[in-house]
Design brief:
With 342 residues, the chain is an alpha+beta fold. 27% of the residues lie in helices and 34% in strands. Strands 8, 9, 10, 11, 12, 13, 14, 15 and 16 form a 9-stranded antiparallel β-sheet that branches. Strands 1-7-6-5-4-3-2 form a 7-stranded antiparallel β-sheet, covered by helices on one side. It is elongated and about 70 Å long.
């Protein structure tokens, strides 16, 4: 009987220590690790904000190589999200929530946890060809068991952070020094122009389907313009938010001019619409070559924007300057305009 009584009070004491002690522990866990990378800040930044490259240096990828990964939202910038599901890693997501020229702020969502962890990158230029990257982590420990676990978290995550940063250093320093010499980008002030537009879509990896979809869309727009006495006032173009990794969602558009357009009296039937292109500051680049190489130019331009601290602020506009009927494919000129935050 005495033994049972002793065991009872021992359990009570242990539970008291567990629960009372837990509330005396910190309710927040935070840590940071840093590393010096022998590359310019712009080049390091371009790798960090590209979630398609995260597993190239992630310390957790090798823990569960059979895990499934997929991305949602825009290719880069706030809203870009990398999801995973695996036997060892469980289910979760890494989402970019904000960016500055020297920082990228992310949230890490773990399956079953009500509050996301905060994991941010801070970059400090140590000269023209060197950068210090600081990777931070913080999480709220709401429950008693979580607070006890929080005592061990810096040890385990700290080691993973060190491994990941070392892999990031190896990855970036193995790349050629990127000065973006192959990309002539200018920041220009652009004015809005009136357009008639209609939405369309095509698989990203099917140039023939894209050409067919654009041809049909422009055919509809030309017929509408003629029917509504709208004068075509420039080259054909597309506007796209570019958020779907598998499908190119676009608006085919034609610049137009007509009596009453500015006063809003002109109308077109759905699904077409009358509108205007973005105005303000835009990053502008001229692509020369086949249309199926435009995605590569767009990717380089997105990297340039990230490296120079600019964020896209509106649809990408592609103006097809050359007529493909009488211009060789390697001489086609496409003017690309990306509105950016001032």
């Amino acid at each position: 009987m005495k033994a049972l009584k002793f065991m009872f009070w021992l359990v009570v004491v242990l539970l008291a220590i567990f629960f009372v002690g837990a509330w005396l522990l910190p309710g927040q866990v935070a840590l940071e690790r840093s590393i010096r990378i022998e590359r310019a800040q712009a080049q390091v930044y371009a790798v960090l904000e590209d979630l398609d490259r995260f597993n190239d240096w992630s310390p957790w990828y090798e823990h569960d190589p059979e895990a499934e990964y997929w991305r949602s939202g825009p290719a880069r910038g706030p809203g870009a999200t990398l999801h995973w599901r695996g036997e060892r890693l469980g289910e979760g997501a890494l989402a970019i929530v904000s960016q500055q020229p020297d920082a990228i702020d992310t949230q890490v969502h773990f399956g079953g946890q009500p509050d996301p962890a905060i994991a941010n990158y801070h970059l400090q230029a140590l000269g023209p060809d060197a950068t210090q990257v600081t990777w931070t982590f913080s999480a709220r420990m709401a429950w008693p068991q979580a607070r006890w676990f929080g005592l061990l978290l810096p040890r385990y995550i700290g080691g993973d952070y060190e491994t990941g940063l070392a892999s990031l250093k190896d990855l970036v320093e193995a790349m050629p020094v990127d000065t973006f010499d192959d990309l002539a980008v200018s920041l220009e002030q652009i004015e809005a122009i009136d357009i008639i537009a209609i939405a369309g879509s095509a698989p990203r990896d099917d140039a023939q389907a894209a050409a067919l979809a654009l041809g049909q869309a422009y055919g509809q727009l030309l017929a509408l313009a003629q029917d509504r006495d709208l004068t075509i006032a420039g080259q054909p173009m597309t506007l796209t938010q570019d958020t779907d990794p598998d499908t190119w969602q676009f608006e085919a558009a034609l610049p137009v001019r007509a009596e009453g357009l500015a006063q809003g009296r002109a109308q077109v039937p759905a699904p077409a619409r009358l509108g205007h292109t973005p105005s303000g500051t835009a990053a502008v680049v001229e692509h020369v070559g086949a249309y199926d190489r435009i995605p590569a130019t767009l990717q380089r331009l997105e990297q340039w924007l990230a490296a120079h601290g600019h964020q896209r602020h509106g649809p990408i506009v592609q103006v097809y300057v050359s007529d493909p009927e009488d211009t060789p494919s390697d001489e086609l000129v496409t003017r690309i305009l990306v509105p950016v935050s001032p």
